[in-house]
């Protein structure tokens, strides 16, 4: 009996390992963590309910790189174009919790990495004045240029934190962070709601 049970457990372990390797699940890599909190983090720490599988994989919001000329389609940007995480694109009537920030002030953006990659850069975009937080994010809603670019020229990130000056804004806005990977066709996307 003991031998059969041991064989069964070994077989289950091999099957589980094979399944994990084939699905590529949990290969996530990073998301914005604090002090400006991303939607991924709000879901993972259960501040926001009804988030779907992002609760277990906040680091996995990966989509095609090349934003804004390429990358996820409008309306799917916060989920990186990944339908598994579509809850991140739902504006929830503009009710996502927002981090309080001050326009014109220095702001740190801290990332939580589960894997580091050769990196082209990190880019931080913000919505235009008149942004409607009850609508899905589109390119037209974002300022055309990032307010902060942190180049890495193919090197892995050495720092978990980037510092820049926030644009002068009022009201509720959304910051889109894009981490572009140098040696794959993908980037990681993180949306953070802020209140100026």
From TrEMBL:
It comes from Streptomyces clavuligerus. SUPFAM superfamilies: E set domains. Pfam families: LPMO_10 (PF03067). InterPro entries: Cellulose/chitin-bd_N (IPR004302), GlcNAc_Chitin_IntDeg (IPR051024), Ig_E-set (IPR014756). This is Chitin-binding protein. It comes from the Bacteria. Residues 29-194 form the Chitin-binding type-4 domain. Keywords: Signal. Residues 1-21 form the signal peptide.
């Amino acid at each position: 009996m003991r031998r059969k049970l041991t064989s069964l457990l070994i077989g289950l372990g091999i099957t589980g390992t094979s399944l994990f390797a084939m699905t590529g699940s949990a290969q996530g890599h990073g998301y914005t963590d604090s002090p400006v909190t991303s939607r991924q983090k709000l879901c993972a720490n259960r501040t926001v309910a009804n988030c779907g599988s992002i609760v277990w994989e906040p680091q996995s919001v990966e989509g095609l790189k090349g934003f804004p000329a390429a990358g996820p389609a409008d309306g799917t940007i916060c989920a990186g174009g990944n339908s598994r995480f579509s809850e991140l694109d739902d504006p929830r009537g503009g009710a996502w919790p927002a981090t309080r920030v001050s326009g014109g002030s220095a702001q740190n953006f801290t990332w939580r990495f589960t894997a580091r990659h050769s990196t082209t850069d990190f880019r931080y975009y913000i919505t235009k004045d008149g942004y409607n937080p009850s609508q899905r994010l589109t390119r037209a809603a974002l300022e055309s240029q990032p307010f902060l670019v942190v180049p890495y020229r193919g090197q892995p990130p050495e720092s978990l934190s980037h510092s820049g000056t926030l644009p002068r804004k009022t009201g509720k806005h959304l910051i889109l962070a894009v981490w572009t990977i140098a040696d794959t066709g993908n980037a990681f996307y993180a949306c953070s709601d802020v209140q100026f």
